[in-house]
Write a structure and sequence with these properties.
- The chain is α+β, with helices and mostly antiparallel strands.
- The protein folds into 2 domains: 291 residues, Zn peptidases (Aminopeptidase); 126 residues, Alpha-Beta Plaits (2-Layer Sandwich), CATH 3.30.70.360.
- Helix 2 packs antiparallel against helix 4, helix 2 crosses helix 11 and helix 4 crosses helix 11.
- It starts with 11 loop residues before the first helix and ends with a helix.
- Helix content is 34%, strand content 23%.
- It is built from 11 helices and 18 strands.
- The strands form 5 sheets. A 6-stranded mixed sheet has the order 1-2-6-3-7-16, with helices on both faces. The protein has a 4-stranded antiparallel sheet with strand order 4-5-18-17, with helices on one face. A 4-stranded antiparallel sheet has the order 10-13-9-14.
- Strand 17 and strand 18 form a beta hairpin.
């Protein structure tokens, strides 16, 4: 399977200003884009409303409040909605599920998330227009903008009278930014919905006006531990004392760098390293407490890191190499062990994904918005669509709103492109359900 690499080149000004190719749109499609335009101001007000409700992943009531606002919006256009709560011990709010059932066209799964990285104690809380084109918005780009685009694209289809007998499921997770564990519970409904669907569309932050995501790398955690013999440093390197835990850690990390690194789109990063005589790590805060002395050989060391991969096979190859390095050739008087923890699966670039991209690009060109190309998967993080991708015939991500500075106090949403992108998604959905 050939992986996709592109150079990010924004041609936004040309794309947005290009005329709609009316002769390539049928009567229904013209009616749909008219409804998107008519509702665009309302959609921006809706976006402002949901942005101004804090929904940090750990603000469970805030996530539910945002879900309730969207639930009303979906019910107003004829969707059935339900709130799926998570077990109390998971400390996550749950997910909004909206659906309409039918037998017409492709069965669609549209994916978004309600939570943001901005918790209740964040100073960045409110939607603020900078000008007619840009608004500061905590979570407006990642990803309440995409959520609103889904709702208002479907609203346009409903008002145009073309949504009847379609089979569409919408799932807005409430914990994408800090996924509830175990995944078998927190992603169960998403996976079951994917098993029912033919096509999955993810509305996480847009990769750019001219790009969509046909592949995303998966994410996995790893935890490496080394032990040594605690002794006076004067004996280090001797047969009796050995090398100590930190030298053994250095051996392994260097071997990872030399022997595992190199495969296309495979990366692994040691995010935190600590070692010494005594240590303690708090997983909830990401902080470590360490005690050690320069004249004492370290008796323990740990590294916690991340692994990114484009296929499950690539992940397993990397893990096998890492295990082999850890288990072989330990320095004197040391030992080592490594554990791996799955997080997000990979979304490889399948033929179905590429064909779906072609359809999206055709829609965009018919709207006078220009060609849509595949975005470099090495520059995209993991997202919920990856849980669905292996169960559907085709999947596309990165279809949401545009903006900058996601996850920072300078996060913005691009209001100028909001209407154009909503039109694009509305026509794509229309053609898929025919």
């Amino acid at each position: 399977m050939k992986l996709i690499h592109t150079t990010l080149v924004l041609s936004l000004l040309f794309s947005v200003s290009a005329p709609i190719h009316a002769q390539k749109l049928n009567r229904n499609e013209r009616r749909i884009i008219e409804r998107v335009s008519a509702n665009n101001e309302e959609a921006i007000h809706f976006l402002e409303k949901v942005v101004n409700i804090n929904s940090g992943s750990l603000n469970l009531e805030g996530v539910k409040k945002v879900g309730a606002v969207f639930s009303e919006g979906f019910e107003a256009i004829g969707f059935n909605t339900e709130w799926e709560s998570m077990p109390e011990e998971m400390n996550r709010a749950g997910h909004l599920i909206a659906k309409t059932t039918g037998t017409k066209g492709k069965k669609l799964l549209l994916i978004g998330h309600l939570d943001t990285v901005f918790e209740e104690n964040s100073p960045f809380q409110t939607f603020e227009k900078i000008n007619d084109s840009i608004a500061l918005a905590p979570g407006g780009n990642d990803m309440k903008g995409g959520d609103v685009m889904i709702l208002y694209a479907l609203k346009a289809l409903k008002e145009a009278g073309v949504l009847e007998n379609a089979d569409i499921q919408v799932i807005y997770t409430g914990d994408e930014e800090s996924t509830g564990k175990p995944l078998s519970i927190s992603r169960h409904s998403l996976i079951e919905a994917a098993k029912h669907a033919d096509i999955a569309l993810g509305y996480e932050t847009s990769t750019g006006f001219d790009y969509a995501t046909v592949a995303r790398r998966g994410a996995s955690g790893w935890h490496l531990t080394t032990t040594g013999k605690r002794a006076h440093s004067s004996g280090v390197f001797s047969d009796r004392t050995g090398a100590g835990a930190i030298f053994e850690m250095g051996r392994i990390l260097n071997a990872f760098y030399e022997e595992v690194r190199g495969e296309d789109l495979l990366t692994f990063n040691p995010g935190i390293l600590y070692g010494g005589t005594f240590m303690n790590y708090d997983a909830t805060t990401g902080q470590a407490e360490v005690f050690g002395k320069t004249n004492v050989v370290a008796q323990q060391a740990e590294v916690r890191g991340g692994l990114r991969f484009i296929t499950e096979d690539q992940k397993e190859r990397a893990r096998a190499k890492m295990r082999a390095i850890v288990e072989a050739g330990n320095l004197p008087q040391t030992s080592a062990s490594i554990e791996f923890k799955d997080s997000y699966p990979a979304m490889p670039p399948t033929e179905g994904n590429l064909e779906l991209l072609e359809l999206l690009s055709e829609v965009s060109q018919d709207l006078g918005q220009g060609e849509v190309k595949a975005y470099d998967p090495g520059r995209r993080g993991a997202a919920d669509i990856s849980f669905a991708a292996s169960y559907v015939d085709a999947a596309l991500g990165g279809l949401g709103s545009m903006g900058r500075g996601a996850h920072t106090p300078n996060e913005t949403v691009n209001l100028k492109t909001f209407e154009a992108l909503t039109k694009r998604t509305a026509i794509l959905i229309y053609r898929l359900i025919q």
